[in-house]
Amino acid sequence: MEAILAFFRDILKEPAFLMGLIACVGLLALKTPWHKVVTGTMGPILGYLMLAAGAGVIVSNLDPLSQLIEHGFNITGVVPNNEAVTSVAQKILGVETMSILVVGLLLNLAFARFTRFKYIFLTGHHSFFMACLLSAVLGAVGFKGAVLILLGGFLLGAWSSISPAIGQKYTLKVTDGDEIAMGHFGSLGYYLSAWVGSKVGKGSQDTEELEISEKWSFLRNTTISTGLIMVIFYLIATLASVLRDPALANKLAAGQNPFIFAIKSGLTFAVGVAIVYAGVRMILADLIPAFQGIADKLIPNAIPAVDCAVFFPYAPTAVILGFASSFVGGLIGMFILGAVGGVLIIPGMVPHFFCGATAGIYGNSTGGRRGAIVGAFVNGLFLAFLPAMLLPVLGKLGFSNTTFGDFDFGVLGILLGRLGTSIGQVGIYIVLAVMALVLIMPSFMSKSSQAINNVTEEN
């Protein structure tokens, strides 16, 4: 029985299979010919595997950059990492996490069918991370067994439905009306960036409309411009590390000249980004048409909520601006924490790339270049402050010196942890009641069957 549960857990937390399964169900609902069902199912699976492969290249090249920065600039602290804290928690809460994941995904589908929150959350690994956080926090408050699983599953399913809806008006601006939603638990940071962009970006030119003279026109090629920028990042970090002590740079280079290694790593990073873009195009080409079958036959007006990297091709220049601005915000946040005696949160290159880039895209959608820069910068500040505030909560659970890196994990973890500490289990039930009201009320306020907030500002 445990092996069977583990099998289904692995399927449900793997976004490639989840997207393929959803696409298959949609195509079958549309009574599509079998050969098109096969190709339409394989497309999203292969596209996401391509996206994951590109993300793997990005992550593997960001890790040495983080080490070079920490060593070269003599920084010591905590680097937020979702995978690290999850791996620690799994040793203690494996069964609870798996059970919350399954219940949460099923409830997300139920909420999409019976409420106006029609968003189906397809980023399985983020659902898994959130299930881990919820099992840890609820367990610390004193919940056990079936009650812990049901409450955690409800919270996961509810937030998976509600979080895409909160900023869907911004997502529609990003995608120029393509009906997909944000299915990533950095969402509150992206919506905040879009709001900031709307306040500071009046009259600012869109990042994708930058006027570049003929001799610099090659920078419009996203792969080339990304490669050049990342090479500069790597060279600066390598130089600082070598000047302090060349041992680490030589170790990372594995017998190669450290500066040649830096150039190659920066260019390889750009290749990873190009692979991500290709995977995204493959996902969208098959998933959205297939999803129409879900919307028409099984869950009327359903909208897929997808990974943040899916939005990168909509504003490639904003991706780079957002990453850089978020990283600067993270650095300044780290210095502020150090000045006030807090734990140093070293900017993690992975969350600042993926979350910062997406914040830049959302900031650009409402405020152009200025919105992308300022919005992503604010996001970067929060990526320093929220993990620092979450760290004491996780420390009490036995996960000291590691913390989640993305925005939503910080907000929910801090909220549930602090309420549980101050007023006990009652605080958790209050949060559940509020989420239940949020899910139910729109159905009483309007007879519309459309997904809530899925309208453009012009409409």
UniProtKB/TrEMBL annotation:
PANTHER family: ASCORBATE-SPECIFIC PTS SYSTEM EIIC COMPONENT. This is Ascorbate-specific PTS system EIIC component. Belongs to the UlaA family. The keyword Transport applies. It is a multi-pass membrane protein. One of its GO terms (biological process) is phosphoenolpyruvate-dependent sugar phosphotransferase system. It is found in: Cell membrane. GO terms for cellular component: plasma membrane. Keywords: Cell membrane, Membrane, Phosphotransferase system, Sugar transport, Transmembrane, Transmembrane helix, Transport. It holds the Pfam family EIIC-GAT. The phosphoenolpyruvate-dependent sugar phosphotransferase system (sugar PTS), a major carbohydrate active transport system, catalyzes the phosphorylation of incoming sugar substrates concomitantly with their translocation across the cell membrane. The enzyme II UlaABC PTS system is involved in ascorbate transport. The chain crosses the membrane at residues 12-30, 37-59, 97-115, 127-160, 218-239, 259-280, 301-324, 330-350, 371-395, 415-440. It comes from the Bacteria. The keyword Cell membrane applies.
